[in-house]
Design a protein that fits this description.
The chain has helices at residues 199-204, 209-224, 229-239, 243-253, and strands at residues 8-9, 14-15, 20-21, 26-27, 32-33, 38-39, 44-45, 50-51, 55-57, 62-63, 68-71, 84-87, 92-93, 98-100, 108-111, 116-117, 122-123, 128-129, 134-135, 140-141, 146-147, 152-153, 158-159, 164-165, 170-171, 176-177, 185-188, 193-197. By secondary structure, it is of the alpha/beta class. The chain has 2 domains: 8-202, Hexapeptide repeat proteins (UDP N-Acetylglucosamine Acyltransferase, domain 1, 3 Solenoid); 208-253, no CATH class. It is elongated.
């Protein structure tokens, strides 16, 4: 492992000799990079960032001041095992943020690509965060949570452990996510309740008018028809099936915690 000749490292930074620093990386003053860390090309670490052991960062990430990545899990059962944090490419993680590695031996916390993660929050051990998500300031994501792609988690949201947040979901500010939030919809409340279809998010993700109309119809069947859940899903499957409604059906059927309904 080595520091690539094109990397720029401040004289006050402390880089372990067993860390692997890729081309074009910028490391600012008072950064600490521990051993067995990999940092991909063109990633930028602002002052006072700490990258803990067994963390991998892909390329083109921007990590802001006083963020700590790869912390020991906030889990009383943690026994000091080797575990990992793996972060993809093109992510922005703003100031004062922490992300933990896994709890169990060789387990992983995973962050995908092109996520925008705002200030003063936490993503806990063993989470799986997909790509193109926005996680706003002061949101707290508990252990074993899964967030798919293109979700928008507003400020002050708390997501309970083992919950899932579906693709293109929007969670309103200060809401509590204690069950699974099926994809494509808007949720709000102290314990989230479905409020409608996330039309703005769907358009941003590239869905066309016909696809959005299908999801609006699926929302009405799932949440406004008074059908039992099994019957509502069968109705969607028969009358409204496309790739997005199929994903909605699969998400709901695979839920272990139950869905917001």
């Amino acid at each position: 492992m080595a520091i690539h000749p094109s990397a720029r490292v401040a004289s006050t930074a402390r880089i372990h000799p067993d860390a692997d620093i890729g081309p074009g990386v910028e490391i600012a003053d008072f950064v600490v990079v521990e051993d067995e860390v990999t940092i991909g090309a063109n990633t930028r670490l602002e002052p006072h960032v700490v990258i803990k052991r067994w963390t991998t960062l892909g390329s083109d990430n921007k990590i802001s001041t006083a963020t700590v990545l790869g912390t020991d899990p906030l889990d009383k059962s943690f026994a000091g095992n080797r575990s990992y944090l793996r972060i993809g490419n093109g992510n922005t993680i703003r100031e004062h943020y922490t992300i933990s590695r896994g709890t169990e031996l060789d387990s992983v916390t995973e962050i995908g690509d092109n996520n925008y993660i705002m200030t003063s929050g936490h993503i806990a051990h063993n989470c799986k965060i997909g790509s193109n998500n926005v996680i706003c300031s002061c949101a707290l994501i508990a252990g074993y949570v899964e967030v798919e792609n293109w979700a928008f988690i507003s400020g002050g949201v708390g997501v309970q452990q083992y919950s899932r947040v579906g693709s293109m979901v929007m969670i309103a500010g200060n809401s509590g996510v204690n069950v699974d939030a099926p994809p494509y919809f808007l949720y709000a409340g102290f314990r989230i309740e479905p409020k409608g279809v996330n039309v703005v998010g769907l358009r941003r993700a590239g869905l066309d008018t016909a696809q959005i109309r299908h999801l609006k119809q699926a929302f009405r069947v799932l949440y406004r028809s008074s059908l039992p859940l099994k019957d509502a899903l069968e109705r969607i499957e028969i009358d409204l099936l496309n790739e997005h409604t199929q994903h909605l059906i699969d998400f709901v059927r695979s839920s272990k915690r139950g869905i917001s309904r």
